[in-house]
Amino acid sequence: MSDVPPETSTRRESGEPPVTSTTSKPPDSTSPRESMSGYGLTLTLVGAVLLALAYYGVIAVEATRDLGRALPEPFYFLAISFLFVLELLKRRELSALTLARSIAFTAVYGTLFVFAAEGSAYLWDNPGVAVGDFAGVTVLAVALVASALAYVGYLTVVKSWQ
Q1: Is the pLDDT of residue 36 over 70?
Q2: Cβ(150)–Cβ(47) under 8 Å?
Q3: What is the CA angle 41-34-21, rounded to 5?
Q4: Dihedral sign from CA coordinates of 69, 74, 75, 77
Q5: Rounded distance, CA 53 to CA 71, Å?
Q6: Which of 60, 63, 127, 158 has the CB geometry, 3.0–4.6 Å to 122, for a possible disulfide?
Q7: Tens digits of per-residue pLDDT, 102-118?
Q8: Residue 100: alpha-carbon gap to chain centroid
Q9: Are 33 and 95 within 8 A, CB to CB?
Q10: Model confidence band, residue 48 (pLDDT cutoffs 50, 70, 90)
Q11: Does the pLDDT at position 40 exceed 50?
């Protein structure tokens, strides 16, 4: 048995101090740990809910041919710009990869937000569409699988791009 606590590693021949959980570097934003992180899980779950609501938003927009029924359009632009700034500031550096990620994030989640807002208003007025025959549960289940596949695909693309 060793006297070294499990959270520290043994000293190397070079005399470097042990690496502990407090001195270790944080994982890279594209490391395998990101896919298991709270951020990845949050993006997947939020994406699934937005995708499910966006499904009903597409139905609402097709039926009325009117975008902006739930919120005035300037609020959509504000939300989209907020998403872009949030993702850009999260990366803390300006590079082609950071800019591409921010644009992709904004395009995907901005579109989902706009249609989800429209879908929420549609479901508020017509709750039977989702409640009848538990269609909303089926839509959410499909959206969850699609969101998980999209996030894993995103991680694969980013990993191959580096």
Answers
A1: no
A2: yes
A3: 115
A4: positive
A5: 15
A6: 60
A7: 898 899 999 999 999 99
A8: 15
A9: no
A10: very high
A11: yes
